[in-house]
Amino acid sequence: MKTFRQRLGAVAFAGLMLAAVPAPAAEFSAGQKSEIESIVRDYLLQNPEVLRDAFAELEQRQAHAETEARSKALAQNATMLTNSPHQAVIGNPDGKVNLVEFFDYNCGYCKQALPDLQRLVKEQPDLRVVLKDFPVLGPGSVEAAQVAIALRNQLKGEAFWNFHLKLLGTRGPVSKATALAAAKDAGADMTRLEKDMAGPEVTASLQEVAKLADALNLSGTPTYVLGDEVVVGAVGYAQLKGRLDNLRKCGKAACG
Predict the structure, then answer these.
(1) DSSP states of 111-155 as a string?
(2) Angle, to 10 degrees, between the axis of helix 200-215 and the axis of helix 190-197?
(3) How buried is 204 (Cβ within 10 angstroms: 0-12 exposed, 13-18 middle, 19+ buried)?
(4) CA gap 65, 124 in Å, rounded
(5) Nearest to residue 180, comparing CAs of 197, 201, 200, 199?
(6) How confident is the prediction along the chain (256 residues), in pLDDT tens digits per residue?
(7) Long-range contacts of 169-174 (CB under 8 A, 24+ apart)
(8) What do you get for the CA distance between the two ends of the chain, in Å?
(9) Which residues share a beta bridge with 229?
(10) Left if phi > 0, otherwise alpha if psi is -120 to 50, otherwise beta: which for 96?
(11) Are residues 146 and 180 in contact, defined by beta-carbon separation less than 8 angstroms?
């Protein structure tokens, strides 16, 4: 069965063909226009595979254009992606291999993928992981991100990583209260934390990540950036490891 997108594409393509009469068509009579439309319609009915092939070509061109645009955006935003002052870094802060993750504390797939990231950090001493708070799943996610961002003023490295593991590993919805409880358990100065949550760093961090997500055309979590590639979804340990191995081998996520 065709998807809605495929049906819509076919209809749109047919409409374009019916409308694709040269500009001088305005000079055609009503009868001539009707005859042209009838010829096009009959041809499409007799050769519907033309619509399929045309739509497949259109999708291929769109995918290529999106890949090109994303590659350009990655190059233009390389510093902001891996060396922004508005980010948390775990693993080896001086590591030569970067993995950037856009995540949401309420994202079930992020929770599912967390053990993969833990394993990679444990196994790869040269891995530098950059965490980007991308709260796309509602107010609770935004509040949790605000707490986490403010907490970075107090906790760094392993201490922040432990907080992140606990909060992202929480079962059920995560909210401001959940995040504050995790921060308290991590030993945070709660008075300072509340003050920092109202400071400019939180707003600047969220705005920067939103800008990056827009530039890279991201809409969901988890999303990873590994070198020259954007990887969407909880793809699993093996795929992430393979791309990281390629980065070490040839400097790209996929070696030729």
Answers:
(1) HHHHHHHHHHHHH-TTEEEEEEE---S-HHHHHHHHHHHHHTTT-
(2) 50
(3) middle
(4) 34
(5) 197
(6) 444 444 444 444 445 444 544 545 557 788 888 888 888 888 878 888 877 887 777 777 766 667 666 778 888 999 999 999 999 999 999 999 999 999 999 999 999 999 999 999 999 999 999 999 999 999 999 999 999 999 999 999 999 999 999 999 999 999 999 999 999 999 999 999 999 999 999 999 999 999 999 999 998 999 999 998 999 999 999 999 999 999 999 998 888 7
(7) 169/111, 169/114, 170/105, 173/106, 173/140, 174/105, 174/106, 174/140, 174/141, 174/144
(8) 36
(9) 226
(10) alpha
(11) no
Name the residue with tokens 């939103």. 210
Cα-based distances in Å from 204 to 14, 59, 84, 93, 197: 47, 36, 11, 22, 12
In order of start, what are the domains of the chain with their CATH numbers? 4-76 (no CATH), 80-250 (3.40.30.10)
